[in-house]
Amino acid sequence: MTFFAFGLNHETAPVALRERFALREEAIRHLYRHVRLSPDAEYVVLSTCNRTEVYLFGRWADVHTLRAWMAERAGTTWPEPASFLVEDEAALLHLLEVTAGLKSLVLGDAQIFTQVKTAYQVAVEEEVVGTVMHRLMHTAFRGAKRVAAETVLGQGAASVSTAAAELARRHVEARPGGGPARAVMIGAGQMGRLALEALYARGFSEVLLINRTRARLEPLAAASGADVADWEERHRALADADVVIVATGADAPVLRAESVPTRTRSSECLLIDIAVPRNVDPAIDALPGYRVADLDWIDTCIGEVARQRQAARPAAQAICRELAQDFVTWVFHQQALQPAIHAIRETFETIRRQEIERHAHRFSEADRRELERLTGSIMQKLMAVPIVRLKDTDPGSIDFVRGVKLLSTLFSRPGCDDASEAESSALTQSRLLTEPARPEAPARSEEPAAGCPVASPQRGGESSVA
User: 160-301 is classed in which CATH architecture?
Assistant: First the structure.
């Protein structure tokens, strides 16, 4: 089993290719439910406006299966030159840095943290994550919180939405004539709401809200004081707008070149498309009085924001490396524990089964079911004592290493002929590890290994199975 991170993002692929591989939540849930991976594989799929990536604890065959499914859905082959794939520690570090905003289009993007948490929640609901991925995702969340609290990476404009609003401000300030600027916001989702807040923070006072479902706009308009227009008015609203930000969940452009009206203002209208797939027809850019900026265009225009945050990058990366190393230590800890835990469970379960079968004739069917439940519960409680204490031991200490070896020896299930010798060796090791040296006690009669048949003494020193 290996850790993998792979997919496409704004660093590897242009927006035209990313939008082909973008996955809505319903598509991701379909993937979780219908695509079969290795029985013990665990994974999370993240798809945002800037990336479609998979974080996988599995095998190479699982990587091939997932890439084939994604390529087939996109109607193409897997874009090897425009994708990435990293393994092991590099994959862990990639996920931590994505969650902390270190890999975002806008360095320190605050929105990505919520997007990763949402992706994880969907994976949890679809039951495709287990102990390892649970631990890894929560490590990533802890890292993002530390980066936000301990560095200045998240200060200032912190998302694509706020970067779009900053571009809008610059565009309006550069237009001739001045005067009040009119902005149109199409889309009432999370990115749209963030962009609206950022527009007001940058001095826009005339904002028109448009959404396919008008009911979703009413609370937003009431809270912000913005005007509202029907969905059918979206093209006509462009005629006298200075800037338009578009962020809907549509799979195709919602603004088409053939429906765009003639400008009523002499200044140019800037349409900022921050959706993936793109929501603005690229052909509008060729029309008089209109200019289109998509995510690729935004990427070239936000270098200043990135430069201001570069100073915080080393400290943020150090936090991610520290937590990635902590996670690797935890993984080794778990791998070292598994033989001991398996030995404990197998030994206790064997003894439980033997005793139930031995006394089964004394109980009714109903009583036997209750006996199964009761003994199972007792077994779990008995197992918890050594396992919990061992897990609480520092995995880097010699006590941990000794404890794993001791438990594996104590609870291993050798053949009954070898049981006495094995148990004697285990008890001797236990005394050496846990007690100071002291004089040897007189020899005692040995007990048979747990779960082995009891021998009855016979004449002549022989024994037979009772």
Answer: 3-Layer(aba) Sandwich (3.40)
Q: Which residues of the chain does CATH 3.30.460.30 include?
A: 2-157
Indicate which residue of 49, 269, 320, 452 is catalytic.
49
Q: What is the pTM of this model?
A: 0.57
DSSP 85-107: EEEHHHHHHHHHHHHTTTTSSST
In this prediction, residue 411 carries a pLDDT of: 59
Helix or strand holding residue 291 (H, E): strand 290-293
Burial class of 51 by CB neighbour count within 10 A (0 to 12, 13 to 18, 19+): buried
2, 3, 129, 143, 464 from 323: Cα distances, Å: 18, 15, 20, 7, 59
What are the start-end ranges of the H helices in 13-85?
15-21, 25-34, 60-74
Q: Annotated catalytic, 452? A: no
pLDDT in tens, 342-378: 777 777 788 888 888 888 888 888 888 888 888 888 8
Considering only CA atoms, which of 169, 195, 172, 201 is closest in space to residue 248? 195
